[in-house]
Amino acid sequence: MTKHAQSLKLLNTARGQLEAVIRMVEENAYCVDISKQILATIALLKRANSVILKKHIETCVKNALQQGDFENKLKELEEVFRYMERIL
Amino acid sequence: MTKHAQSLKLLNTARGQLEAVIRMVEENAYCVDISKQILATIALLKRANSVILKKHIETCVKNALQQGDFENKLKELEEVFRYMERIL
Amino acid sequence: MTKHAQSLKLLNTARGQLEAVIRMVEENAYCVDISKQILATIALLKRANSVILKKHIETCVKNALQQGDFENKLKELEEVFRYMERIL
Amino acid sequence: MTKHAQSLKLLNTARGQLEAVIRMVEENAYCVDISKQILATIALLKRANSVILKKHIETCVKNALQQGDFENKLKELEEVFRYMERIL
ipTM of the predicted structure? Predict the structure, then answer.
């Protein structure tokens, strides 16, 4: 099982949901129902993002720390927090 | 041009971006880059949601109001605000 | 009971929580604990915002609609959705 | 200058803003204006949270890493990401 099996599952579900949203829009479904599906897709992507970052910390960051190379990794984590502040 | 042309364009861009994210995960791209792409997709979906709700107000809600039928429409708007509070 | 009794209660709780956060920072409490308290305050404010908007729809918007004056009210609701998209 | 000078400034501004919001509610100001002020306060708190986490990484996490003690710190960062996913 690749380290991203869980996030891949979430991302594929989000893709299926997004395709359903696009069909709803093309078939002129009710706007409020479309909005709810978009928000549900956003919730899935937020979950996938957390899982990706969790795996990142458990693997990439941890491996780098074991080799004493953490300056870069810490800078990246700060950047991710900023991204999340701006977008979420 | 259908009333949802703008949101459809945003949603299709978001789908393309999500497919790129899935490829990145499958090809074991760097986690932080994957996270940034997921967050960028979320930003697109938030935009699409706003556009959908704008059109909803300008068409469905307005038409209903002109026929004096607004109880239902107002209840729905309250529900959308609650959805957005919980998910965004 | 004023129409904003519920939101006022939430806002006052949020203020108390924010004052506690400021004390934690001044007393050099652990950063992760401070972050959790800030996020909890944000959750309270998101709740208060939903309650305010619910009351707005049930009173201001409804009254205006009954007098057939809805153009302005609808424009405002669109604006609120855009604000929520950008900030939440 | 304490390491939290910047976040303290943001938090104090947010407190002043929240007090203004409470006054607006007590004086029955227009709901949409109240909502905008609450959202502006949330934006300030999100900024303060990012600054707190940046300082956390630059000081607490970095010091711990230099002493080879990172298991705990990494677990905490995972938790913060989860908190941010749920609340932001």
Answer: 0.91
List of chain A residues whose C-beta atoms are within 8 Å of the C-beta of residue D44: none
Please name the member of A46, A78, A85 whose beta carbon is closest to the beta carbon of D85: A46
Inter-residue contact D52 to C4 (CB < 8 Å): no
List the single range of A15-29, A46-60, A74-88, C7-21 with lowest mean pLDDT.
A74-88
Under 8 Å between Cβ of A83 and D81: no
Tell me how far the alpha carbon of residue A1 is from its chain's centroid.
19
Gap from A28 CA to chain D (nearest CA, Å)? 30
Give the mean model confidence (pLDDT) for residues B66-81. 88
pLDDT of C12-58, one tens digit each?
999 999 999 999 999 999 999 999 999 999 999 999 999 999 999 99
Chains adjacent to C (≥3 CB pairs closer than 8 angstroms): B, D
C1 pLDDT band, cuts 50/70/90, is low
Q: Decide if C32 contacts D79 (C-beta within 8 A).
A: yes
User: What is the C-alpha to C-alpha distance for residues D47 and C58, in angstroms, rounded to an integer?
Assistant: 33
Exposed, middle or buried by CB within 10 Å (0-12, 13-18, 19+), for C57? buried
For residue B71, with 0-12 CB atoms within 10 Å meaning exposed, 13-18 middle and 19 or more buried, which class applies? Answer: exposed
Cβ contact, residue pair C62, B84, below 8 Å: no
Tell which residue, A59, A54, A52, A56, has the closest CA to residue A11.
Answer: A52
Q: Which of B49, B65, B81 sits opposite C54 (nearest CB)?
A: B81
Check CB contact under 8 Å for D7 and C25: yes
Using a CB-CB distance cutoff of 8 angstroms, which residues of chain A are in contact with residue B18?
11, 14-15, 18, 45
Q: Domains of chain A by range and CATH?
A: 5-87 (1.20.58.1000)
Residue of B nearest to C61 (CA): B74
Q: 3-class DSSP state for residue C69?
A: coil
User: Which ranges of A1-88 would DSSP assign to H, the alpha helix?
Assistant: 5-26, 31-56, 62-66, 71-87
| Residue D59: pLDDT over 60 | yes
| CA dihedral angle for residue D43, residue D47, residue D48, residue D52, rounded to 10 degrees | 150
